[in-house]
Design a protein that fits this description.
alpha/beta; Rossmann fold; 9 helices; 7 strands; about 30% helix; globular
């Protein structure tokens, strides 16, 4: 049995630590929690208690990772059961699928604490890049166990696992220049809001605008529309 969680990093808010709402950040495939550091630090400066969830992406399927993530969420919530605040999430890429899997495994008590969710470049309908790699490198699925789950083919995990229901506040940020996850693959049926920013798959994580939009959705339940983004979905 593998251990999903790596080192967990926490960033305290600048003020009102005891009363701060928490944001759990989850990285994507072949990455580590370090790529989420800019977002975590920004959210901490904005008054949230930021938590980086780290996991070894190659070692398990998405649903196996999701089970471990669900256990982490349950522990995080039960450890601060008296806290009035909610627990929010910011995910990148495969991290969004981990969260989708974890949400279906949580207890009703944990569900009640779930706040708003921001998914950045999530392959909710799979990734054509994952499918291309699997077609051209037959061994890839053995080295990266979750890769078949991320494929854009109709029978993949991404395309067959039930979507979150309308009870969750989910905002999705896509990259206009993302060559890994097409815009059409990012959408969910019950998403609250969707925004495209002028960035690629990884550079989205290091954009100040991404951080600002993530915070805005967590606070207001919608993205902020500035003039240059008018007309974007």
């Amino acid at each position: 049995m593998f251990s999903s969680a790596g080192e967990i990093k926490r960033f305290a808010p600048l003020q009102d630590h005891a009363a701060a709402e928490r944001v759990i950040l989850v990285h994507g495939l072949l990455m580590s929690g370090h790529v989420m550091l800019p977002l975590a630090r920004y959210l901490a400066r904005q008054g949230f208690a930021s938590i980086l969830y780290d996991y070894p992406t190659r070692r398990a399927t998405v649903d196996e990772h999701g089970a471990c993530f669900a256990a982490f969420i349950e522990k995080e919530i039960s450890g601060q059961a008296d806290s009035p605040g909610q627990v929010h999430f910011v995910t990148h890429s495969m991290g969004g699928l981990l969260l989708r899997s974890a949400l279906r495994k949580l207890s009703p008590a944990a569900w009640a604490k779930i706040g708003r969710i921001v998914m950045i470049a999530p392959p909710n309908k799979g990734s054509d890049v994952a499918e291309y790699v699997l077609k051209n490198l037959s061994f890839a699925g053995k080295i990266v166990k979750c890769l078949p789950d991320l494929s854009s083919v109709p029978h993949s995990f991404a395309n067959t696992f039930p979507e979150p229901d309308s009870g969750f506040d989910i905002g999705i940020i896509g990259g206009r220049y993302d060559l890994d996850v097409r815009e059409s693959s990012t959408h969910l049926t019950h998403e609250r809001d969707h925004l495209m920013l002028p960035h690629a798959y990884t550079t989205l994580l290091f954009s100040r605008r991404t951080a600002e939009q993530a915070r805005h959705f967590i606070v207001h339940g919608r993205f902020e529309r500035v003039e240059k983004e008018k007309g974007e979905k």
